[in-house]
Amino acid sequence: MKKIHCTLAGTFGALLLAFLIVPSSHAQCGGLRQASVAPANWHPQFGQARLLRASLNEDRDRDEDRVSIVGFWHVKFVSDGITTGIPNGIPKGTEVDAGYSQWHSDGTEIMNSAGRAPNTSSFCLGVWEKTGTRRYSLNHFAAAWDPTKGPVGAAGPTGELTGPTSIREEVTLAPNGEKFTGSFTIDNYDESGHMQSHLEGSISGTRITVSTPPSSIF
Q: How far apart are CA 96 and CA 198, in angstroms?
């Protein structure tokens, strides 16, 4: 009798062990789903993943940053009528200079002034920096000469340096990058550092490309 009890106990023990093992085996094969221990945000949500904008203006700002002041420009300087040290002044709306300017990617700039004769220093140099979205500041210097002074040669006076000229510009580039507008000041000094004249006005620039026709720069 004792032997029968032991046999039955062993049989029931084996069956019980089998029932305990079967659910675990099914769970590993997908028969029974076990509770997930992963955080909810680990679960894939197909078709719903997307990046959220940090700002409504993000795309617009990115597009505006693609345009640059770097390039070749036809520029015009127009007086706004505010002057000091200039006999009779310069009336508002008068074009005081025009020329060709190149803004370089290294932060430097050069201009060939068409409003000045070459023997009065028609080339001048500057440095620029970006101050905002499509906004730029330029600090520009020229050497001013008086062609009526200096030693007289066979061709007449050789000219005389009168002092440096400081040109400041604050410009804003158009959204398409093809034009810019802004303000300028021109201050002339003598060699001792005394200001001789001051002029304020507006500046405009039109980009010159390989397809720009001559008719567009007049």
A: 13
Strands 95-103 and 179-189 come out as unpaired
Instruction: Note down pLDDT in tens along the chain; length 218 residues.
Output: 544 444 444 544 444 444 444 444 443 333 334 444 444 443 444 455 555 455 544 445 455 568 999 999 999 999 999 999 999 999 999 999 999 999 999 999 999 998 887 777 789 999 999 999 999 999 999 998 888 888 888 878 888 889 999 999 999 999 999 999 999 999 999 999 999 999 999 999 999 999 999 998 88
Residue pair 161/147 in contact (Cβ under 8 Å)? The answer is no
**Closest by Cα among 100, 111, 201, 197 to 146:** 197
Length, in residues, of the chain: 218
Neighbouring CB atoms inside 10 A of 76's CB total: 18
Paired tokens of 64: 């505006």
Cβ–Cβ < 8 Å for 126, 138: yes
Exposure string over 114-150, b if 16+ CB within 10 A, otherwise e: eebeeebbbebebebeeeeebebebebebebbeeeee
CA–CA distance, 117 with 109 (Å, rounded to integer): 20
Residue with tokens 């050069």: 110
Is 92 in contact with 109 (CB distance < 8 Å)?
no
**Which structure tokens are listed for 217?**
């720069």
